[in-house]
Amino acid sequence: MAVMNLRQAIQNAMDIEMGRDPRVFIIGEDVGRNGCSFGQYNGLPDKYGDRRVVNAPISESVITGMGVGAAAAGLRPVVHHDFIDFLGCCFDEILNQAAKLRWMLGGQMLMPLTIDVFAGGGSASASQHSQSLEALFTHIPGIKVVTTSSPADAKGLLASAIRDDDPVMIIHNKGLLGMTGEVPEGEYLIPIGKANVVREGSDVTLVSYSRMVHECLGAADDLAKEGVSAEVIDLRSLVPLDKEAIFASLEKTGRLVIVHEAVGKSGFGAEVAAVVAEEALDLLDAPIRRVTALFSPVPYSAALESAYFPDKSKVISAVKSLGLVKQ
Q: What whole-number distance in Å separates Cα of residue 130 and Cα of residue 297?
């Protein structure tokens, strides 16, 4: 094991996968000049050259379209975008090309495309650089969507995404860039489609992903002081969704609180709630609660932004509303 931050874990995964498979390459804005805006590809341009770490013009549609074509031709591109907010500029390439080509051609070709992107707020980056838009892409058949909440997950899920024969969008959170943790050395894979129970409990299930996993863990620590045992599940994979992990937890707890950084309206939490209501309603002893961002553009003001996003205090309030702790 080695201690790495999120940037280093991403760089480590890319270095291993590029060294292992000559078909793997990166394309994105400034990936070859500065190792990307967040520095997670530092050192790779010098090691692999500009044919495998490809600087692209500021055009999300060009970057993603090249990735789709390269994947269709048998390469394994990693298309990097700094901000999920700007994937609207290449939505056609994702929605109608990457997600559909393998289906439309009857499986005669693969689409091993990885879309590596950052999302989330908390850095006073205002409305166009702070959104969490994962739900837009979980609605598209043909694309797998995974999220990371730790350096180890970033390494293991990125490697699995690169080796997958279908398009995978891997979403990191900008608020976790400086986070450090133990990461396995060498080749390391985390299966896509498997959630992670990061804390076991018996009274309430907190289902989350990405940065909000840590708010849930903080809430669980505080709830424990009041005699409430909270189980925290990091979904990691949104598509495919590990329903069994959620159901297994609800068999113990009977209560569900879903937490995510995106707005609540039509957010991914609604999908989780619907799946539980349709397939596991008998496991519930109380209504489902969702803790999400407000239905508004992300504010620029740090004070307003803090009020806008979920935090552990809002998670605790949601748990208390289920009658587990006297308010």
A: 9
Between the alpha carbon of residue 225 and those of residues 195, 220, 252, 289, 322, the distances in Å are 26, 9, 20, 21, 17
Model pTM score: 0.96
Same fold, 2-183 and 196-320: yes
- Do 150 and 236 form a contact (C-beta atoms < 8 A)? no
Active site residues: 129
Domain 196-320 indexed as CATH 3.40.50.920? yes
CB atoms within 10 A of CB 265: 11
Q: Which fold has domain 2-183?
A: Rossmann fold (3.40.50)
- Core vs surface per residue 283-320: b (16+ CB within 10 A) or e: beeeebbbbbbeeeebbeeeeebeebbbbbebbbebbe
Domain spans of the chain, in order of start: 2-183, 196-320
C-alpha separations of 233 from 59, 100, 200 in Å: 37, 31, 8
Helix (H, G, I), strand (E, B) or coil at 270: helix
Average pLDDT for consecutive 10-residue bins of the chain (327 residues)?
96 98 96 82 93 94 97 98 96 97 94 97 87 97 98 98 98 94 98 98 98 98 97 98 98 98 97 98 98 95 92 97 78
How open is the CA angle 177-235-238, to the nearest 5 degrees? 95
